[in-house]
Amino acid sequence: MKFVDEANIHIRAGKGGNGCVSFHREKFITKGGPNGGDGGDGGSVWLQADENLNTLIEYKFKRSYAAESGQPGRGRDMTGAKGEDLVLLVPVGTAVRDLDTDEQLADLTEHGMKVKVAQGGWHGLGNTRFKSSVNRAPRQSTNGSLGEERNLQLELKVIADVGLLGLPNAGKSTFIRSVSAAKPKVADYPFTTLVPNLGVVRVDHLNSFVIADIPGLIEGAAEGAGLGIHFLKHIVRTRVLLHLVDMAPYDNTTPEDNAQIIINELEKFSPTLAQRERWLVLNKMDLIPAEDRAAAVARVVKALDWQGPVFDISAMNQQGTKPLTQSIMQHLQKQRELLAENEDAARADAEERALVEEEARARIEEVKQMRRAGRDADDDDDDDDHDVEVVYAPY
Q: Which residue has the higher pLDDT, 117 or 388?
């Protein structure tokens, strides 16, 4: 199934049913009085997170959704039927934004989480409601109100504790295969990974965390090169970033230069995200002679002026992967305990996440506008008939 992580839809809640003007008519009963019933409420539109879904593909082709309207009231004091609510299922991790007001409506981060995004219209009143001692035969009623209409943007961001960064062919998919049960495609050519992959890493029987693998970045990704930075939004929720570096690149580049490319692109994408906890993971160490490994690691650390944790591994042989996953688990547990005990830390963490998402959204929109401008320029270049002088040959 095609992976779709963004969709724009139009939703409309149901209209409330109109009230009824009716009078009691029965044999041998004169002046029976008003008996017009109220209309029914219109159905509302809800979004509900479902862990069995992993893409927004359904909303890519059908863009308009409407809840059922309420039925009008009837005589004999019969109330119209209420319109049925419309529940739209979305993957866990879907953020909902109103395109007209740019308001964040919800962030569905747990299975079963449900939010109302459009309120159904209220029912109209029948003429029975207007009966009084001085108005015994009312002929007025009210119409039901319209339901809310909205243009929504659905944006899926995978839920993961750890995110993987690196150039194509750095070994990210091989790493996630070696530490989890996930089986992403692995091949000996770049851009094997085209969509994000998730894997659950079980450190022991009681402790586990989720790791996300995104397509590799290349130089110029912040300007739309390669697969661009579109998929970087899937790591904005992570607690730790693992920067995988190929220590034996197949071309003439150096590991330190390749690592610097990713750092530069990450800073362009979101300066706040670039300041998040990031660990350097030097992969494919088995391809370097044992006597040269320490010097190779020291050279990369010095060139990057790296101050954070450093791990040298071989994902293919699972060499060094267990100490790495154990360290990640310990770090995540400490973070969870800190956020649970310290309200100030939890508040600062929430503010930082909101800032990262805002920067990411602004950067992605900027790249989209650059691409649109490029396409428009190409169309203008093709339309050059006005510069051609047409000469008609005589018969």
A: 117
Q: Is 285 annotated as a binding residue?
A: yes
Question: Residue 193 annotated as binding?
Answer: yes
Q: Is 286 annotated as a binding residue?
A: yes
**Residue 133 is assigned to a ligand binding site:** no
Interhelix angle 172-179/321-341, nearest 10 degrees: 80
Q: Cα separation of 53 and 31, whole Å?
A: 60
Residue ranges of domains in the chain, CATH in brackets: 6-131+142-156 (2.70.210.12), 162-367 (3.40.50.300)
Q: Could you tell me how many residues make up the chain?
A: 395
**Residue 284 labeled ligand binder:** yes
pTM listed for this prediction: 0.69
What is the tens place of the pLDDT at every residue in 285-296? 988 888 988 999
Q: 3-state secondary structure string, 209-250?
A: EEEEECCCCCCCHHHCCCCCCHHHHHHCCCCEEEEEEECCCC
Cβ–Cβ under 8 Å, residues 63 and 8:
yes
Is 142 part of any known ligand binding site?
A: no
Ligand-binding site membership of 215 (annotated): yes
pLDDT (average), residues 158-181: 84
Confirm whether residue 355 is marked as ligand binding: no
- 370 among the known binding-site residues? no
Residue 251 is assigned to a ligand binding site: no
Contacts of residue 313, defined as CB under 8 A and 6 or more positions apart, other chains included, come to: 175, 281, 282, 283, 285, 319, 320, 321, 324
Confidence check: pLDDT of 371 > 90:
no
191 appears as a binding residue in the annotation: yes
Ranked by mean pLDDT, which of 8-17, 133-142, 203-212, 334-343 comes out on top? 8-17
Which DSSP helix (H) or strand (E) runs through 348?
helix 343-382
Is 17 labelled as part of a ligand binding site?
no
Q: Find the mean pLDDT for residues 314-322.
A: 89
Q: Is 314 known to sit in a ligand binding site?
A: yes
